[in-house]
Amino acid sequence: MSVQEGGKSKKYELVPPDGGWGYMIWIAVIINMVAVSAFLGCFGIIYKELFIQLEMGSTHINLLNGINAICVAVSGFMTGPLLKFISMRKVGFIAAIFMNLGSFGIIFVNSQLAFFLCYGVMQAIGIGILYNISYSSINDYFVKRRLFSLSLIQSVTAVVAFLSPQLVKVTLEAYGYRGAYILLAAINMHTFVAVSLMQPVNLHLKKVEMITVEENEMKLLMVDDQSCEMPSVKLSDKKCNSSYSDQKQEKDLKLHVTEERSKGIRELILEALDVSLMKSFLLSNAALGPAISLFADLAFTLILPQALYAINWTEGEVAWAVSLANLGDLVTRIMFIVFSNWLLRFESQQIYIAGLFVAFITRIGMLASENFTAILIFLTLYGTSRCILVVLIPLVVSEAVQPEQFTSAMGIFMLVFGFDNLLFGPAIGAIRDLTDSYAAAIYVLTSCFAIVIIFWIIEICYKKNKLKRQP
């Protein structure tokens, strides 16, 4: 875009607003994240009575969680292809419909099949899509303040998650478990408001003047001078070549029509799935690293209370340990908000690798220590690493791909994470059962962090050496 001002031509470019309507996007994403993840820690409390009524044992619950994880992964992966055919808000409304149908359906379920369908399939499909488009909106609206935005959103979500057990407890005591499901369904209905706020970023792009380099202007002038000396084309030349050019254009047009007709369903599917991105991103550290790390972190979080009970900790001590871990998580999120501008000097991958080091050291420290106070300190630092590994995932993905490929890349990450849970989750449980030791399972999970660290450092060193070799 260029504008004439005072005889001088000024060029402008359209950039993300880094504010403006982006603040409404904050509200929308906070609503979605509260609906999607704030009550996950209360899963056992919320559905305990329903599990008893439906006679669901641990096997059924593990199967339910597996189906839920796969549906979240697949729906998150399919978000990118869907956005190539319909707008983001329409995709968001579809996700909100699925999620709310599942939420309201849970209120009335009286069979295992209905519960699996409502919670494991319908609600999970909505969660996967909403998760992807929420972070895609942040990626579209913010560049310089992206880390600040993610930290703020995650901090508010963490505060709600911290208070959610008390809210669920009061609701269960006052209205029973069906009444609690009505409350959760009402909270989830706010996703329709959130999706309606997600306006296309094209409506809010900011016009910024481009700084032109004088050398480029001189080069343009030189090209113009040379073009004046170019020989002109005579009318006779045009007449001689007219019949040939007409035939060539007609032939090219026929070839183009033939190619369009031959383009079938297979080509459309490959184009929608962005196969080129899958080939380049699927096996990269930016996709596999966060997926494996997040799986190892969540698996550790799930077995942590049982591991502490196994070393004869009391219920009060375990509750204190979990609270300290949550405190470390929350404090780190707040620190990200405060120091977001200073952290911009580092790449997201570098901060993420630092988080992996903290995750590795804290787990090794917990396993090696027998002192109660030392373990509590390591657990607090574990909360810090958990925050880094969760908050920075969208930033790590966005640095690895082009802006227009972010949604598809997030979908690939979610798909890898889902299959990691499906394949390795039962393996961790089997190791625990075969060895009759939580320490063995934690050592295996900790080794996942070490593997990711090694491969990521190798990749970074290789890229730096490659840049040095270039002339």
From TrEMBL:
Alphabetically ordered keywords of this record: Membrane, Transmembrane, Transmembrane helix
InterPro entries linked to this entry: MFS (IPR011701), MFS_trans_sf (IPR036259), Proton-linked_MCT (IPR050327)
Transmembrane segments: 21-47, 91-108, 114-135, 147-168, 180-198, 287-312, 318-339, 351-368, 374-397, 409-431, 437-462
GO molecular function: monocarboxylic acid transmembrane transporter activity
Pfam families given in the database record: MFS_1
Protein name: Uncharacterized protein
